[in-house]
Amino acid sequence: MIRVYIADDHQVLLDGLSTLLSNIDGLEVVGMGHHGNEVLHFLLENDVDVILLDINMPVLNGIETCKILQKEHPEIKVLALSMYEKASFIQQMLKNGAAGYILKNTGQDELVEAIKTVHRGEQYLSKIVSDTLMQSLMGKASTTRPYIPEMTRREKEVLVLIAKELTTQEISDQLHISLNTVETHRKNLLSKFGVRNSVGLIKMALERGLLE
């Protein structure tokens, strides 16, 4: 039997979820609360397996409550049940230890599946939540500037000439520097870009728009 506690500041939702879950085999609603402090107080004398936790609650909100639960009751699985599908809320709840995150418009079957999944020790994210996180990650990736190492003026000149397929001798002649100096600049460039050869160096430079 999975012992479930429901925390939400809307009594109508509490009553509805309690009635719904009480009719599901293998689930038992052992308590309900309107904010985080009620959750923590209940746990002082009662055992709970899964907590359905709303985010927007008075006194102590779901994000802070989740953080405390992770520290004081790590054995309890927290399933965020919220109307918010913003990536920032989802990420914060997961960071604070929530095992899952679903929306309040979730159907009965998915809700029950989510409860059973987190109780098994697995993570559960509804499709909308999962898509929101993915879009957020993709957005961050697309706006993150690639690493460009600092280069001296001479290193930049050598990089351009390497990309033009000039030999070490030709680079030496064109820049009026010794062969050893050319090789030193080349080795420094390989090290700074973290590549093994000139092909990798050119590829990295092109990806960073350094040869346009």
How would you describe this structure to a colleague?
By secondary structure, the chain is of the alpha/beta class. The chain folds into 2 domains: 2-142, Response regulator (Rossmann fold); 153-207, Arc Repressor Mutant, subunit A, CATH 1.10.10. The protein is built from 10 helices and 6 strands. The chain has helices at residues 11-22, 36-43, 62-72, 87-95, 108-119, 127-143, 153-163, 168-175, 179-193, 198-207, and strands at 2-7, 27-33, 50-53, 77-82, 100-103, 124-125. It has a 6-stranded parallel β-sheet, with helices on both faces. Helix 4 links the parallel strand 4 (77-82) and strand 5 (100-103). Helix 2 packs parallel to helix 3 (62-72), helix 3 (62-72) packs parallel to helix 4 (87-95) and helix 8 crosses helix 9. The longest helix has 17 residues, at 127-143. It is rod-shaped and about 85 Å long. The model has no long low-confidence stretch (mean pLDDT 89).
Backbone shape: rod-shaped
Number of domains: 2
Average pLDDT rating: 89
Number of helices: 10
By CATH, the superfamily of the largest domain comes out as Response regulator
Low-confidence stretches: none
- Helix fraction, binned, reads 40-55%
Identify the strand order in the major beta sheet. Answer: 2-1-3-4-5-6
- How does CATH name the architecture of the largest domain? 3-Layer(aba) Sandwich
- The topology string of helices and strands comes to EHEHEHEHEHEHHHHH
Percentage of residues in DSSP E strands: 5-15%
Largest sheet: 6 strands, parallel
